[in-house]
Write a structure and sequence with these properties.
four-stranded antiparallel β-sheet; 25% helix
Length: 424
Amino acid sequence: MAVEVKLPRLGQGMESGTIVRWLKAEGEAVAKGDPLYELDTDKVTQEVEAEAAGVLLRIVVADGEVDVGETVAVIGAQDEDVSEILAGAQGGNGGAPAVSPEPGAAPRAVEEASGSEPDGVVEPAEQEIAPPSRRPGERVKASPLARRIARERGIDLTSVPGTGPEGRVIAEDVETAASRPPSAAVAAAPTPPFPPGLEVEVVELTSTRRTIARRLTEAWQAPVFQLSVTADSSRLVEMREQLVELLNEGDVKPTVNDVLIRLVAAALMRHRPVNAHFVDGRVLRFPSANVGIAVAAPTGLVVPVIRNAERKSVLEIAGDRADLVTRARAGKLQLVDLENGSFTVSNLGMYGIEQFIAVLNPPQVAILAVGSIEERAIVAAGELAIAPTMTMTLTCDHRAIDGSEGAEFLRTVKALVENPALAL
């Protein structure tokens, strides 16, 4: 019996996703657990596996934004009649046409097959953008993600032209409306700020990069303050070297950052106001240290999470970190890898950066920026000495954390860096 493939809810709060491409073609055999298609959410692009075995009889949505629970394909027996399922699926998907690629061919966009303009195409500058035609009191058709972005940006959806099926407003429509000047007509193309004939590369933002831009813009609106300390890292470096000497064959070699994450997790358990989210005017404090690590991935910065870091050894943290970084750089992270981080550590020391200020990772209320370990002059027991030191800067959301709370946390982190045994 044929089975409808519906867009899954891959994480808490997920309302919609964008199908990037299909990994199976119509008419191709599918086993349960096979990668079926790539789905782009507002956090990560990941492969979605088939939940049933059979033949991919029909691809209902070739690509584009889809709400959670909508039918995107049908799997069943060879030559099985699925016309009734397809009719119901098209009705449930808001009347969107069932567009699918030829077997063995790459899927085409829904807009291309239907003859309408694809998302992102800009009409000539002299053409005016007409407001959407809607009857008074008529509910605006919009995807959940579009509604959320509109609510965050304070945009009236009734004034946003929709480019989705049947004029449905999608996330990109709201992003476009937010960046457009308050004018009924599209402004004429500006004069390029470079000499004529000079070739420039135009890079379109990926979904991940657009999400980064939106979230960091939100973070920039938060009232923040920064606190910095410089710590003697001699014992931190010694601990890492001792751990390396005790490695068994096949163990992941721990980094200085792995040791630091364990120390930060211990500090978070002693200062719970820092281990929190700020959501809808409330502070949500976490019982465990779910420490995010900033990783530069091909599609942009991502922050996978090492969960319950306060309960793990440095070697366990090193193994988790190696797995997350490898999958991040290969584009294989799952949505669950990025969720529910309670604090973030951003380390640019490997690039030789001595000190920097990190931008908040909302809804988290604090982030620690870590610089490189450098040999510097210090005063120890009244004597001038040379020691490896590290500068750390804590960025705090003042809506959730007072200066004294941030200072106490950072003082604890400094004490643990200078004497890691205190974290045990």
